[in-house]
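Re: [ENG-882] Designed sequences occasionally contain unexpected residues at chain ends

Forwarding the minimal case from QA. Structure tokens:
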């Protein structure tokens, strides 16, 4: 017996030596790794992180949503109620909360709107799932119930359509403005009529004959500091907030060459030494440089070019010869703007100072300089159907205000793009979510098995939208939801929350069906992905200790 005990001790000592002094998962992983498993350690902690992120942006939902002041790692200040901007600038570290951030980012890319709905609904789904898990349900049963409820929600949503405008609405600025007003109201409450009209005007100008080919990049936004948001205007064509170089300020039937290199005397590719023995040789050397530069610019002019857009510096001598040959010159230092100019005009960027081929030359009916609010702007005015561009010139007293207006306009333009795919609308102001909640709850009660509990919770989670809208407006959420349920039972399916008079009622607010479907899909997938995780295994971070806020390190 003593011998067997000794052998067992030796075997355990050897095993401990092989696993770094520990047993189980910790012994298997490298030193410094972390391992969390089970409901308490993994699932509930993930749900808690998602709930914290959801509660952060929940107060920003709807027209009465509060703004967040976010200062990122570059010390840039953001004051906004746009959920996509908030969650992107928060630099979330927790992996489960990052899933909600990714879902919100994907919603922004797919629809351009509804990002707040994704985060809030996903957080509520996880909160209610936590209750079910604590009551003894298994994660797989909750996931099955949520998936069944999601399928039912898509089925019910198609039956809630209250407005299906004809395709001609995309070419009618007034009708289009009425469709996108609720989207702008949730971001710029009080100025929604102004911005909806401007966005609709710009989108109609940029709308091709076939709406499916509408490109959101053809609606540009130029921010010019000064005046106030009511001075925001729409300019037909592409507007760059910088003047042209030289004295030429207008060109008709412009033939445009785009260069991504400096316009100056050509330098040799290899270093060379020139020995000059007299003043005449210096003069001759200078004259030969001037002659060679003039020869190049003359050959560019002979190719039919009467405007040059340059991405880098333009030398004084080059500018002199450009003026001599009546070539208008514009410097565009941003490579992104340079690409847009190329796309707008049909030109190709050249990387050598040489005459362009006919295929490289772009065209524009009129390029001119116009003063907007004491800022000189260069406008590319297009008339061709194939290259329609409109620019919304945003005015504002501070950069933060203009940034927030830009985000609202971007959401509005994205909704117009979504309308080219599916222009059907469902009741807004929380009505569609409450109708879905009622339908899914009834569906859940008819289901056998444990899935019905998760389906009922899914329906209950959808109530978070009208509840949050009411709370953000300072209303009694329980009473308002009860009134909405009663109205819906009477057949008044358009009854939502009237935030102006703080009552329930049909105020004509409508939400785009495509955006709503995408948001519910993203929220459900994010919640299900978090619930599927039962273990968290984290390796030891690579590298040395992290630098402190004031830490420098080597340059």
């Amino acid at each position: 017996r003593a011998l067997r005990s000794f052998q067992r001790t030796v075997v355990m000592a050897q095993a401990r030596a092989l696993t770094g002094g520990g047993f189980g998962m910790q012994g298997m992983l490298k030193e410094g790794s972390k391992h969390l498993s089970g409901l308490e350690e993994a699932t509930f902690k993930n749900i808690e992180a998602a709930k914290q992120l959801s509660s952060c942006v929940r107060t920003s939902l709807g027209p009465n949503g509060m703004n967040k002041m976010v200062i990122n790692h570059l010390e840039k200040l953001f004051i906004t109620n746009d959920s996509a901007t908030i969650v992107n600038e928060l630099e979330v570290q927790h992996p489960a909360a990052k899933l909600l951030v990714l879902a919100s980012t994907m919603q922004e890319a797919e629809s351009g709107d509804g990002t707040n709905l994704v985060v809030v609904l996903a957080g509520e789904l996880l909160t209610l799932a936590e209750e079910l898990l604590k009551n003894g349900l298994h994660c797989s049963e909750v996931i099955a119930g949520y998936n069944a409820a999601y399928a039912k929600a898509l089925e019910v949503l198609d039956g809630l359509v209250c407005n299906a405008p004809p395709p001609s609405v995309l070419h009618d600025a007034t009708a289009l403005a009425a469709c996108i007003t609720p989207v702008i109201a949730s971001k710029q409450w009080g100025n929604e009529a102004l911005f909806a009209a401007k966005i609709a005007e710009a989108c109609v100008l940029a709308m091709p004959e076939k709406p499916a080919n509408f490109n959101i990049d053809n609606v540009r936004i130029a921010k010019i500091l000064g005046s106030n948001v009511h001075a925001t205007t729409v300019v037909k064509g592409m507007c760059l907030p910088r003047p042209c170089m030289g004295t030429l300020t207008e060109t008709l039937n412009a033939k445009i060459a785009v260069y991504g290199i400096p316009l100056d005397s050509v330098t040799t590719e290899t270093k060379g030494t020139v020995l000059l023995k007299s003043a005449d040789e210096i003069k001759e050397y200078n004259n030969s440089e001037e002659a060679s530069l003039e020869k190049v610019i003359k050959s560019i002019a002979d190719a039919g070019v009467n405007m040059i857009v340059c991405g880098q510096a333009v030398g004084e001598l080059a500018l002199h010869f450009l003026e001599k040959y009546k070539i208008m010159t514009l410097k565009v230092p941003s490579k992104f703007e340079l690409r847009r100019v190329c796309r707008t005009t049909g030109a190709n960027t050249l990387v050598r100072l040489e005459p362009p081929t006919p295929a490289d030359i772009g065209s524009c009916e009129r390029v001119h300089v116009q003063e907007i609010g004491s800022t000189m702007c260069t406008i590319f005015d297009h008339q061709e159907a194939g290259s329609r561009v409109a620019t919304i010139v945003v005015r504002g007293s501070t950069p933060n205000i203009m940034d927030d207006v830009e985000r609202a306009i971007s959401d509005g333009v994205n909704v117009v793009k979504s309308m080219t795919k599916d222009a059907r609308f469902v009741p807004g102001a929380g009505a569609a979510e409450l109708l879905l909640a009622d339908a899914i709850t009834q569906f859940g009660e008819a289901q056998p098995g444990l899935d019905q509990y998760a389906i009922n919770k899914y329906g209950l989670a959808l109530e978070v939208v009208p509840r949050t809208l009411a709370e953000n407006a300072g209303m009694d959420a329980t009473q308002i939801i009860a009134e909405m349920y009663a109205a819906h039972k009477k057949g008044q399916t358009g009854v939502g929350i009237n935030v102006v008079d703080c009552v329930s009622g049909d105020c004509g607010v409508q939400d785009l069906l495509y955006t709503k479907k995408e948001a519910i899909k993203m929220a459900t997938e994010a919640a299900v992905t978090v619930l599927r995780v039962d273990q968290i295994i984290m390796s030891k971070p690579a590298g040395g200790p992290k630098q402190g806020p004031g830490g420098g390190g080597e340059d």
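QA comment: On inspection the terminal residues look reasonable. Confidence is low (pLDDT under 50) at residues 549-555. Proposing we downgrade this to a documentation issue.
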